DNA sequence: TACTTAATAT
DNA sequence: GATATTAAGT
């Protein structure tokens, strides 16, 4: 309620030419962002008066909400003007959070080490506030080959958000009707291909099988993502004819607990950035067991990069070693 | 054509 | 070794 949905769409220039013909749209969306209550009001002074005077920091005059709003607007327009097209072009796109976050740039080529010194600023990015602080960064390889561009698609990273959406769709479809194409359509994620979905579906099925075969108990703590996205009960029947099951909350179509039919592009890693980013997702759930709540609020942005340690979360399914099968 | 499964690549 | 992509079979 009361959320404003601003979006600017424009047609991508780089994307595809050969086969698809679908335009790549970049939507600047603000849906689902934390509402005002969740944020520290900018109108409040960040530095206590005592501190300020102690360090001779000139006290900024109080700002009214209006001032803040105005500033935000100008910032936004700046962003729009300057960066808006960076998404799918060859430019690197880096989001800087308001606080000075390091706009790490990914390496382009197959360099093994970017520089001699092993100790650099690239060490760790601390994820404070909530783990939603992801920066999306996407780099196009320095492929100059026009022929190759259409073929090489960046690696898709299944972020928790993306996965959740996936699970939702699958569950609402019923596992039987959940086929790649349908899932893809329902997810309605720009840039997501049927192959992507099929692949993930394959993995997901394996996961389900494991879960089922093992016991009715919760998954191992290995992979939070799948663990935190509980398998809906609807994943059983829902056979041929579409009769809504049990809870009867979904007529037949697709109940999407999500914002309308449009979601920005998923996160794509780089083709040449082969690397092992085993990221230890620091499940910073404040409460702990309550699943995740802070998630929905952000886009599927996350960089799959090799050297980031400590952030980014790719999907993984709880690893359960098959004892006998 | 689309789905599933297996192999391959990163 | 895990995850995603690509190929092969139905």
From TrEMBL:
Main localization of the protein described in the UniProt heading: nucleus
Natural source organism: Quillaja saponaria
Keyword terms of this UniProt record: Nucleus, Transcription, Transcription regulation
Record domain HTH myb-type: where: 158-209
Name under which the protein is recorded: Transcription factor PCL1-like
InterPro entries in alphabetical order: Homeodomain-like_sf, LUX/BOA-like, Myb_dom, Myb_dom_plants, SANT/Myb
Location relative to the cell: Nucleus
Start and end residues of each stretch annotated as Disordered: 1-22, 75-147, 213-251
GO molecular function, one term: DNA-binding transcription factor activity
Ranges of biased composition (kind: Basic and acidic residues): 95-104, 114-129
Biased amino acid composition, Polar residues: 75-94, 213-236
GO cellular component: nucleus
């Amino acid at each position: 309620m009361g959320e404003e949905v601003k979006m600017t769409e424009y047609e991508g220039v780089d994307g595809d030419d050969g086969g698809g013909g679908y335009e790549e749209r970049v939507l600047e969306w603000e849906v689902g962002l934390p509402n005002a209550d969740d944020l520290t009001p900018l109108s409040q002074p960040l530095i206590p008066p005592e501190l300020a005077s102690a360090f001779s920091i000139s006290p900024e005059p109080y700002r009214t909400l209006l001032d803040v709003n105005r500033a935000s607007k100008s910032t936004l327009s700046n962003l729009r003007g300057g960066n808006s097209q960076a998404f799918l072009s060859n430019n690197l796109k880096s989001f800087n959070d308001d606080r000075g976050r390091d706009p790490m740039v990914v390496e382009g080529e197959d360099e093994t080490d970017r520089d001699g010194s092993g100790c650099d600023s690239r060490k760790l990015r601390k994820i404070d506030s909530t783990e939603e602080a992801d920066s999306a960064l996407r780099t196009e390889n320095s492929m100059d080959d026009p022929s190759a561009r259409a073929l090489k698609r960046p690696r898709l990273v299944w972020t928790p958000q993306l996965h959740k959406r996936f699970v939702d769709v699958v569950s609402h479809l019923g596992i039987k009707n959940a086929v790649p194409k349908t899932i893809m359509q329902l997810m309605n994620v720009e840039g997501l291909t049927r192959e992507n979905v099929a692949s993930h579906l394959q993995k997901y099925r394996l996961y389900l099988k494991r879960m089922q075969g093992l016991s009715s108990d919760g998954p191992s703590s290995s992979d939070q993502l799948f663990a935190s996205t509980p398998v809906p009960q609807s994943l059983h029947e829902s056979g041929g004819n579409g009769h809504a099951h049990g809870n009867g909350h979904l007529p037949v179509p697709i109940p999407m607990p999500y914002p309308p039919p449009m979601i920005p592009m998923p996160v794509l890693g780089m083709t040449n950035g082969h690397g092992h980013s085993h990221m230890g997702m620091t499940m910073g759930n404040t409460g702990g067991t309550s699943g995740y709540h802070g998630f929905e609020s952000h886009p599927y942005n996350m960089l799959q990069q090799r050297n980031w340690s400590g952030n980014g979360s790719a999907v993984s399914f709880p690893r359960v070693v098959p004892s006998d099968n």
